[in-house]
Every structure is written in C-alpha cells, then in structure tokens.
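Reproducibility note. Readers wishing to regenerate the assembly model reported in the main text can use the exact inputs given here. Chain order matters: entities are listed in the order in which they were concatenated for prediction.
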Amino acid sequence: DTGVSQNPRHKITKRGQNVTFRCDPISEHNRLYWYRQTLGQGPEFLTYFQNEAQLEKSRLLSDRFSAERPKGSFSTLEIQRTEQGDSAMYLCASSSQGVYTFGSGTRLTVV
Amino acid sequence: QQQVKQSPQSLIVQKGGISIINCAYENTAFDYFPWYQQFPGKGPALLIAIRPDVSEKKEGRFTISFNKSAKQFSLHIMDSQPGDSATYFCAASIGGAGSYQLTFGKGTKLSVIP
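Running the prediction on these inputs yields the following structure tokens for the assembly.
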C-alpha cells in the first residue's frame, strides 16, 4: 500500500496524559500536513511541513501540541497534558502537484 | 467565522437520482475549490476540483458548477448509486492547487437508497 499511513488508528487516554501519533506520507511527497476533524465538522488545518521544515502553524495548535518531521520523511504529532477537548480525529496528508492524499486518521478519545 | 458554508447537512436521494450539494464562500482570494468524499473510518479523498476561471467541470457522474459572482459552487452527482453514500466536503484554498491550507465546509452526509 503506497498511501499515507497513520498509527495508531485509535487511542484512548486519560486526561493529563501525553500522546504521540505517527504519520508516514507517500515517499515522494515533500509536503506533509496535519488536520484535526471533530464529529460533524470538516477537517481543520493544524500545521504543515515542506520537507523537514515546519512552515506554518494554525492558532488551533496550542503550546501543548508539537509536530516534528525530523528527516523530511515520517512525522509525529505530540499532545501534552491532554484535555477532553482534544478528542478528535487527527488526519495526516501529504501532497504532490497540489493533490492531497489523506491517511485514515488517528481517533483520539480523552477520558 | 466560517469561510466556507455548506448545505444541506444531510441528503437522502433515491438510486438513479441527482444529488446536489451547495457551498458558498466569503473570501474572494480563494482560487481553488476541491470536493472531497469521506467514508466512515477513512480520510477524505479528492473527488473533483475547479478553478474560478471555469464555470463547470465534469468527471464521469460528478460535475462542479461554479458561480464566481455569487461566490457559490456546487457538486452534482448524476445517477446516484448506493456506493456514493458518504460524507462530502467542499473546500477552498488560496494559492491554487499548491496551497498549504484547505478550508473545509462542515460536510454533507449523503444517503442513496435503493
């Protein structure tokens, strides 16, 4: 499968815990994006990388959120001190020639 | 402020019928308008996209109609099939297809009944 891979698919965590998600983009895509999708809403932009450089961050990305793409390949999104409001689907996408390919997402539930 | 407004929230269409989903935008700087299809448990997948210099684009059973003066665009699904049952999102971006940020509508849940 040469699509965008996200792990884990589901994560349940207790409030206050830290969580980390991983995204493996399509190998030849140099742009990588993170979006968040809550129930009944469209995806909302969080941040994006051009190769290993993080070039833009949404104001939705509070100080508790950090994203990395250390070698311009896979990316991680970490949420520290999770809150119930962080419960959502976290989508990763990569793009080439302007065409986005989304992964299936990581569904986070904070209890 | 919601920059892309989508309607209806849900839609039920009989098999073989036409499904129509509408979107309106506010930011005149938007210059790329894609539609995405999302099945449960999956990420959105690009369906069809249009630029504002074109009033209509057709790909198979899917057509985008674009009205620049009204700042509206719509998706028409002809001969709707049960396999089309999914959530559809319109989106918009600035900077063409190479933009880094898509602004999505809230989605329309389409159910096609046999």
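We highlight two features of this model. Chain A is about 0% helix and 55% strand. Chain A touches chain B at residues 4, 31, 33, 35, 40-45, 48, 55-56, 91, 93, 97-105 (CB under 8 Å).
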